[in-house]
Amino acid sequence: MAKQPNTEKRVLKTEPKLKVDLNEEQKEFVELFYQYDVNFLLGDFGSGKSLAAVHTALKSFRKKQFDSIWITRPMLKNQLGALPGELEDKLGPYTFPIIQNLEVCQGKEMTDKMQKEGLIKVMPIEVAKGVTFIRSVVIVDEFQDMDYEDFRTILTRLGNGSKMIFCGSKQQIARQINKSSCIKDVMRLENSGLVGFKTLTANHRNPVLTEIIKYLENE
After folding, report:
1. Which 3 state secondary structure label does DSSP give 198?
2. Residues 97 and 169 sit within 8 Å (Cβ to Cβ)
3. Can you tell me the distance from the alpha carbon of 36 to that of 116, in angstroms, rounded to the nearest whole number?
């Protein structure tokens, strides 16, 4: 009898190596990521939210726990069609921070290769209806700039074997969305036990920024 091929995917048991390491509070988020399918990562500017999300997504992908990484971010309402170029061109300015963090973690060459092979995919929230994320890590960046309707739309796309990371900041809500932000609804989930919830406090940018902002806003 001919030997049957092994159709099960090989799971990488060793810890993948990336170009940067996470600090202790970011590592606490990683633990939540493996505990919950839906996770919220909050913090002010420079706290390392996007880096922690990307780092976690890449490591879990390299361990062959997921088949792809999806990236999405709120855009101005009904402005997608008005922007020039193909879909990838339209989304470029919005997803640049996440792509930059991917390059920080693994280099530009590998990031470009994964995008070309469809292993890293970018999608605008406003075309998410009807989509199901299967065996994927989904990073929703700047989720505080979504209203509840858009938040519900993207959340309910989560399929079997997938996890979703919402990155956002209570301090950086866009003026356009203002009081319509979903952040108030999301905060009700913090102690629900249904989702992972971590707020980062470290500042990974120039330390003088915190003092400048504090001085201006206190004055």
Report:
1. strand
2. no
3. 30
